[in-house]
Amino acid sequence: MADKSDLMAAAVIIELIMKYGVPAALQIITAWEVDEPTDADWEALKVDGPEKYFNP
Amino acid sequence: MKRKSIVLFVLALFILAVVGCANFQKASYRGLGTMSVSYDLAMKSAADLHAKGFISDEGKAEIINHAESYSTAHNSAVQAFQDYLRAPEADKETARGKARVAMQAALGLYSELLSILTKYEIYGEPVEPWF
């Protein structure tokens, strides 16, 4: 049977999905699951400059 | 307007809570991870709204200006944590201090970017419903 922390985690996941959508929520959850971020994990967090979005 | 303030306040509290507790490196990783997803969605929304004529060229320039500062600071913070990870034990404390400063700069600029985006009704969430 699910305990209180499972229910809290489920509520947070539902809220993330409602707020950001499934793909983005999955990205966030994946980041939160990493306990010891490696160099590659950090590298994956880098963002593109805004020009890339406005002038793809 | 009240809703916007509440959204910004809750988001700022959330990020402060994430960064302020637990292991510094892990908490920063979570904070930067969440900020990168939010930034990506916000930029996609801003570009979409500009393409549809809801944001003027002046608005686009203002967003790009702040987003450029934030993305540079964000990537510098990520780089600072990579440097911390690679630093020899003797240099760990210095590298950790640099990472902390870079993280604070990224958080400050993220907050500024959110304020600008809020002017254009962008909250770091998808403009269109995802379903």
Q: Which terms summarize this structure?
A:
heterodimer, A: 56 residues, mainly alpha, 4 helices, 0% strand, flat, B: 131 residues, Four Helix Bundle (Hemerythrin (Met), subunit A), elongated, disordered C terminus
- CATH architectural grouping of chain B: Up-down Bundle
What is the terminal separation of chain B in angstroms? 27 Å
Beginning-to-end CA distance, first to last residue of chain A: 49 Å
Principal-axes shape call of chain B: elongated
Structure description:
The complex is a heterodimer of chains A (56) and B (131). Chain A is mainly alpha-helical and 56 residues long. Chain A has one domain (4-54). Chain A has helices at residues 4-20, 22-33, 39-43, 51-54. By secondary structure, chain B is mainly alpha-helical. Chain B has one domain (2-119): Four Helix Bundle (Hemerythrin (Met), subunit A). Chain B is built from four helices and no strands. The two termini of chain B are 27 Å apart. Mean pLDDT of chain B is 82; it is low at 126-131.
